[in-house]
Design brief:
Elements: E1 3-5, E2 8-10, E3 15-17, E4 21-23, H1 30-46, E5 59-66, E6 69-71, E7 80-81, E8 85-97, E9 103-111, E10 121-124, E11 126-128, E12 131-141, E13 146-156, E14 165-172, E15 179-186, E16 189-190, E17 196-204, E18 212-218, E19 224-226, E20 243-249, E21 257-267, E22 276-282
Parallel strand pairs: 6-14, 16-22
Antiparallel strand pairs: 1-4, 2-3, 5-8, 7-8, 8-12, 9-10, 9-13, 11-12, 13-14, 15-17, 17-20, 18-19, 18-21, 21-22
Length: 283
């Protein structure tokens, strides 16, 4: 008698199907069993193994950059000032190592003190053995004084990232204080029917509008409020045009007579404009 037999081997990740065959049971050979075993173990070898838990992230050391300080009144060699923009280069270097593989890339980021979102410069350092370096071109407004963050980090072939190393590039300018050019009020006379009182103050700075840190007003009762030049707050029309705006709700009434509002502007180096008073008549 001849038997027709089908064998099905399966695991969680694979299955092996032996095609139907006809053969006397007594002639079932060791070679067929060996073939089945080879197919079974071959399938097992192709299954994904467990993730490694002993991988290590790359490390950084010996971070340096130059120059670390720039003064607009006495620029380093190779730096320039066209009256509104400062342009120059910094040299960055760091040592990178990966204990269990290769460092794939080392990146740099330069962050302006004026923005926590958009970086001033980004890129990759060039490799020379275990040392990574680059010459980074920078350009920023003359009025954008403050501490610029320079940071680097490494990524290895396992896509693991090192910790960041940071330093500060300090840009300073002695310069001159800001100037309050004009003040306008709408309306000039507050009546019982008036609901809002808006001031627009035009400010300039010899070192550029980016150097202005704030414009404020002291109201008749001695409180101080900031004005805005962001194109949205307090009814400001256009962002960054040097016209600072504030709006007060006077619908609840105001003390009659002449009310004095005092305005002053400050730059990023701490210099202040002269205080300028503006009188409003309240009926």
């Amino acid at each position: 008698m001849r038997l027709r037999t089908r064998f099905l081997f399966s695991t969680v990740s694979f299955s092996v199907l032996l095609v139907s065959f006809s053969a006397p049971v007594r002639f079932w050979s060791w070679s067929a069993l060996v073939l089945c075993a080879l197919l079974l173990f071959s399938a097992c070898d192709s299954a994904p193994g467990p993730a490694r838990i002993d991988v290590q992230a790359p490390t950084l050391a010996d971070f340096s950059f130059s120059p670390q300080a720039v003064n607009a009144e006495q620029l380093p060699d190779g730096w320039s000032d066209d009256g509104t923009t400062i342009t120059g280069r910094i040299e960055v270097s760091v040592t990178a190592d990966d204990p269990d593989g290769d460092v794939r890339i080392v990146n740099y980021v330069v962050q302006s003190p004026l923005s926590a979102v958009e970086p001033l410069a980004t890129g990759r350092l060039n490799r020379n053995g275990g040392v990574y370096s680059a010459t980074i071109d920078l350009s920023f407004p003359k009025g954008a004084v403050g501490a610029y963050t320079v940071l680097v980090y490494a990524i290895d072939n396992d896509n693991l990232q090192s910790g960041e190393i940071r330093g500060l590039l300090r840009f300073s300018a002695e310069g001159n204080p800001p100037v309050i050019e004009t003040i306008t009020a709408d309306p000039d006379v507050v009546t019982p029917d008036t609901e809002t009182l808006q001031f627009v103050v035009t400010v300039s700075d010899p070192d550029g509008l980016d150097n202005i840190s704030r414009v404020q007003v002291m109201v008749p009762n001695g409180q101080t409020f900031n004005l805005f030049d962001d194109g949205t707050s307090q009814g400001d029309a256009t962002a960054g045009d040097g016209q600072y705006t504030t709006t007060f709700d006077v619908s609840g009434g105001a003390t009659s007579g002449t009310q004095t509002f005092s305005f002053q502007a400050f730059d990023r180096t701490g210099l202040a404009s002269e205080a300028v008073d503006y009188d409003i008549t309240v009926e």
